[in-house]
Design brief:
By secondary structure, the chain is mainly beta. It has two domains: 52 residues, Membrane-bound Lytic Murein Transglycosylase D, Chain A (Roll), CATH 3.10.350.10; 120 residues, Glucose Permease (Domain IIA), CATH 2.70.70.10. The longest helix has 7 residues.
């Protein structure tokens, strides 16, 4: 089950030796997700080592530096047979609503109280009860590379605004607060304020 994270996919990269470091050249069809998978790293690591890069704005011919070691952070994995998502990010849950034009994130059904984990290290931008937008108890994290992640409908938030969090830290628990029909996590990722498909991102 392959889902492209960014619409206009930019497919092969050329390794260029730069002394002890290496870089890749973006070619037509490449995405950060496909490049990370091909070179044994993660999108998170690529964004951290290439601070000027924006995940949804790759250009053919653009040079990206590769991390010197493969990233060890686990990412989103999709098991096609059962369509379950395991993480960092979020929770062990059943995918009930995928990313699409009408829904800018993933809905992951899980029992109330299931731990929700930070996708990657960052700063808590907000940890509030959002009644206005129907999110219920919600956490928004800011990360390197202009990425923001949102975790909504929580039963309880376990972090506060301004707090630093690390990858995999439990930040909340699954609930059904706000406009929700059952216990689940609504997980969303934004690049410069634009919703992007979380599949393959981490």
């Amino acid at each position: 089950m392959r889902i492209h994270m960014f619409g206009a996919a930019l497919t092969a990269a050329v390794l260029i030796s730069l002394g002890s470091a290496a870089s890749i050249t973006v070619k037509a069809g490449d995405t950060l997700s496909s490049l990370a998978a091909r070179h044994g790293t993660t999108v998170t690591a690529l964004l951290q080592i290439n601070p000027g890069v924006r995940a949804n704005q790759l250009r053919v011919g653009q040079k990206l530096t590769l991390p010197t070691r493969p990233a060890s952070t686990p990412g989103v994995t999709v098991r096609a047979a059962s369509v379950r998502v395991s993480a960092v990010p979020s929770v062990q849950g059943r995918l009930t609503t995928p990313f699409n034009a009408q829904h800018g994130g993933l809905d992951l059904a899980a029992p109330t109280g299931t731990p929700i984990r930070a996708t990657m290290a960052g700063t808590v931008k907000s940890a509030v009860f959002d009644a206005r937008n129907g999110w219920g108890w919600t956490i928004v994290l800011e990360h390197a590379g202009g990425l923001t992640t949102r975790y909504s409908h929580n039963s309880v938030n376990l972090v506060r605004t301004g707090q630093q969090v690390v990858t995999g830290q439990v930040i909340a628990r699954v609930g059904s607060t706000g406009n929700s029909t059952g216990p689940h996590l609504d997980f969303r990722v934004y690049q410069a304020g634009i919703p992007v498909n979380p599949y393959g991102l981490f």
